[in-house]
Amino acid sequence: MTDQRSVFADATQAKGEAIIECVGVDKFFGDFQALYDINITVGLQEVVVVIGPSGSGKSTLIRCINRLEKHDRGSIRVDGIELTDDVRNVQEIRRETGMVFQSFNLFPHLTVLDNITLAPRQVRHIAKDAAEEDAMSLLERVGIPEQARKYPGQLSGGQQQRVAIARSLAMKPKVMLFDEPTSALDPEMIKEVLDVMVELAKGGMTMIVVTHEMGFARAVADRVVFMSDGRIVEVGTPEHFFTNPEEDRTKLFLSQIL
Amino acid sequence: MTTPTKTEAPRPPATTLSGRLKSRFFPNPWSGAVSIILTPLLIYLGYRTLLFVFVNARWDAVSRNLTLFMQGTYPRDQQWRLVVQVLLLALALGVGTGTGSAAARDRAEEAGLAYSPPSVLGTLRRFWSLIAFVLILLFMTGTPVPWITAAGVVVAGLLGWQAFRLPRRLRMAGWLVTLLLLFAGFQVVSGTVGAAWVPMGVIAAVALWKTTPEKRFALRMTLLLKVGLAVGALASVRALYLAFPLVGVGWDNWSGFHLTLWWSAIVIVLSFPFGLLLALARRSSLPALRYLSTSYIELIRGVPLITLLFMGQFMLGFLLPVGSSLSRISRSIAAGTMFTSAYVAEIVRGGLQSLPAGQTEAGQALGMGSTAIMRKIVLPQALRAVIPAMVGQFISLFKDSSLLFILNLVEFLGVRGLVHAQADFRVVGHAETLVFVALGYWAFAFAMSRESQRLERRLGVGVR
Description:
The complex is a heterodimer.
Chain A lengths: L1 H6 L10 E12 L2 E12 L3 E5 L6 H8 L7 E6 L2 E2 L4 H10 E4 L11 H12 L4 H14 L15 H13 L5 E5 L7 H16 L3 E5 L3 H7 L2 E6 L2 E6 L1 H6 L4 H10 L1
Parallel strand pairs in A: 3-8, 3-9, 6-7, 7-8
Antiparallel strand pairs in A: 1-2, 1-4, 4-5, 9-10
Helix pairs in contact in A: 4-5, 4-6, 5-6, 6-7
Chain B lengths: L16 H9 L3 H28 L3 H4 L2 H6 L7 H33 L8 H7 L1 H13 L3 H18 L9 H20 L6 H15 L7 H25 L12 H27 L4 H15 L3 H15 L8 H27 L2 H9 L4 H31 L14 H5 L10 H30 L5
C-alpha cells in the first residue's frame, strides 16, 4: 500500500489547518479486517465526501473517528487530541464531533426540543432556558421550528433527520460526521436534508459525509474519497474524480452508479 | 405505534332476532351440536350457582366477620386509624391522579395532540371490579362506619382531584403533596416513634429544594438558600415528630386484608429499585458485579417462594449481627423482596436488551457519559417497554402474599382460621368464606391487570 500512499500524497493532505488526522489506521472485526492502512487528513472548514460500494469500510472509518468503533492500529487525532482508551479523551472528542446516523436515532420518548437540549444540558450544563433558546434557533435553521413540541414519531423521515442534525449542532461541534444521512429516506425527502447539509457546508462547517448522493458530492465536496474493500483507493477533487478517475475500481464503481 | 384511525366499519345487514341467533349459535352443524350440548350444561351450572349464592349459602359467616376480614387482629380501639388512613390515601390518590392527568394534558397540548380528561363513567368502568367488591362489602355490613368511610373516600378523592385545575408551576408541588399524603396515611396507622421522621423529613426537604424558585436569586445565593431550607425542613419535621409522638400500631400487629395490601405494596416498592440495580449489575462491565448479580438471580429464581419465606423466618438471623432481631413480618417482607427483585431484574434486563444499539450510540456521539445515557435515554425507554411484564409479576406477588398464612401470619386468607374457630362457624360457612376471599383477591388483581393493559395501549401515544 506504500506506493498508493505516495501516489495520493498530495491529495490526502488537507488544504487548511488539519483538524482530523488518520495515520495508518487498521480496524478488525474478529478475523475480518475492515480498514487497511487508512491515511487521511481533513482540514478546517473542509467538506470530504466518502463514497464506495457497501461493505467498503466507509461507515467504519467515520465511526472510528468518534470512537464508536475502536481502531486497532495507527493513530487518529481530532483537533489535536489523540484517540486513546482514556474515557475523558474520548468524550472530549465526541463533544467536538457531531454525528448524524442513517437511522436518525432520535430519542422516541423525548420531544423534538428535549432531544436537542438533552446533551447540552447534561454535558455542557447549560440552563434549560438558554438551551431551549439555542434549540429553537437551530430548528429555525433546519426549517422546522413549528415541530419543537412534537415527538419524533409524529414527524416524517426528512423532518426527523433534520432534527438529528440540529441535535448534533446543539453541542457546537467543530466537525460533523454524516453516516449515509439520506439512505433511509423516501426519495421526496432527500432534498430537504441535503439542502440543510449544503447550507451547513456553506457556513464553513468541517464535514465528513458518507453518502451515495453523487450530486451532493459534485456540488459541495472539496475532496472526494473513494473506498473499496477497506482501503482508500482514490482521493481527489470532485472535478478530477467524476471526469477523469485514474483507478479501474473507481471507474467501475462510477459506471455502475451513474 | 400509531393511534388507530376511526373508520366506519361496514354494518352487517340488520336481521331478525331469530336470524341473529341462528347465525351466532347454529352457523354450521358442528357449532350447532356444541351449542346444543353446552347450553343445558351452562344453564344447569348457572342454576346451581344461583341456588348456592342466594338460597343455601350461609353468608353470615362473612357478614358477621367483615371487620375481622378487613383488619384482622388489629386492635379494635385503634380502628379510627384505619379510617383516617383510608381517607388520607383516597386524598393522595385524588391529588396524584389529578396532577398526573394535568401533566398528561400539558404534554398533549405541547405536542399538539387532543387530550380528554378521564370521565366519571370511564373511571367507574375502569375500576368496576374494585367498586363491585366495595359495594358488596357495604351491603353486607350492619354498621354505619363503612358507609361513612366510603362517602368520605369519594369526597376526599374528588377534593384531591381538584389538583387537576392547578396551574402548571405547581405540578411538582402536586407530586410532593401526593407523596406526603401517602406517607402520612402510612404513619397514621404505624405511628411516629423511632426514626420514622427520617423519610418524612427527606420528603419535606426535597419538596422545598425542588419548589424553591431560582430566578429571583443569584446562583450561589440560591444554592445556600436551598441547602438552608432543606436542612431546616429536616430539622422541623424531626422537632414536630418529637413534640407530637403518635403511638400507632406497628406493622407486626397488622393483619387481615390491611396486611395483605400493605405487605404487597411495600414489597413491590422495595423490589423495584433492587431489581433495577440487579439488572444493571448483570449487564455491568465489571465481572465481579456481573457474576454476583447473575448467581443471585439464578439462585433465587430456582427456589420456590414458600421456601424462601420459611428461610426468611428461620435463617435470616444467621446473616444479621448477633442481638439484632427482626419481627416476623419484617422477615417476610425481606424474603418477599429478595424473591421479587430477582424476577424484576430479569424483566428489566429484557427491556434493556430490547433497546436498539443506536440509542446508546446517539448518546455517546453527543459526548454524554454512560450514567447520563443510562438515566436519560436507556432506562426511560426500557422501563416503559416492560411495564406490562412487571405488573404481571406484581399481580402474582399480590396473590402469593396469601402464603404468609402458612407462616401463621393472619393475612386475608388466614383470617378464615379465626372465623372458623368461632363456635357458630366451626362447621358451616367454609365455602362461603373461601368465595369471599377469592373475590377480594380477584377484584384487586383484575383491576391491576386492566390498568396494565390500558397502560400498554396508551404507552405508544406520541412515541415512535
